[in-house]
Amino acid sequence: MKKIGIIGAMPVEIEIIKNELEDCFVENHGGVDYYIGKIKDVQVVLLACGIGKVNAAIYTQILIDQYSVDIIINTGVAGGLSNNIKHLSLVISKQLSYYDVRKIQMINCFPNQEFFKADANLINLAAKISKSNNLDYHIGTIISGEDFISDTERKKELYQSYKAICVEMEGAAIAHTAFVNKIPFLVIRCISDLSNEASTEDYKKFEKLAAYKSAKLVKEIIYHL
């Protein structure tokens, strides 16, 4: 039986998955609750790691060490960078990187690569499910850092540098941790805002629905594993 680790940053990003867990019990590690249960015949370990790269890396490593998961999927919301996407578009990660770490540092120092590539089988499964449900989805690069991007000029700079579809705060750290532990991973994000001057208000408006849409796709992936 496969064991899947599912990570969101905030409780709202994992709520609908938590509500579906069967035979669920909770264990706490480092102040974070890990929800252990099943969805159909798949074992699931679910957590909200907290916002930011450090939290994401710490609790992903605990997830791996404590539960020996076979797959890691990150779900949540993100700000759009590409002009081809809109509010509530779904993004399936092809690869991830940090926008606030120098590219030369990523390449010349361990782990000696700029991008962490998501698992091809998981990408294909997510795309197949999205297509069959007529969802607005995009496959591409996701970048992570510690800022909430709400400036059009900064948005343009990031897009020009990375050609990324969206930006958020945890995905690359989760991908990085999965990579060094040789665990297949995927990041799913739904667009809550467009990383511009309207982002704060848009985030408030679309956060819950975006979190729901992302988690719903993750739940469908679990059904099809």
How would you characterize this protein structure?
With 225 residues, this protein is an alpha/beta fold. The protein contains 7 helices and 10 strands. The protein has a 5-stranded mixed β-barrel with strand order 5-9-8-6-10. The chain starts with a strand and ends with a helix.
Overview in brief:
This protein is globular. The protein has 7 helices and 10 strands.
Strand order of the largest sheet: 5-9-8-6-10
Question: Over all CA atoms, what is the radius of gyration?
Answer: 16 Å
Distance between the termini: 10 Å
Per DSSP, the total helix count is 7
Strand elements, count: 10
**Alpha-beta classification:** alpha/beta
The succession of helices and strands, N to C, reads EHEEEHEEHEHEHEHEH
Q: Which regions are unreliable across 5 or more consecutive residues at pLDDT < 50? A: none
Strand residue content = 25-35%
Strand count, sense and barrel status of the largest sheet are: 5 strands, mixed, barrel
Features:
38% helix, 10 strands, alpha/beta, five-stranded mixed barrel, 225 residues, 7 helices
Layout of secondary structure:
Elements: E1 3-8, H1 15-18, E2 22-29, E3 32-39, E4 42-48, H2 53-67, E5 71-80, E6 90-98, H3 103-108, E7 116-117, H4 120-132, E8 137-144, H5 152-162, E9 166-168, H6 171-180, E10 185-193, H7 199-224
Parallel strand pairs: 1-4, 1-5, 5-10, 6-8, 8-9
Antiparallel strand pairs: 2-3, 3-4, 5-9, 6-7, 6-10
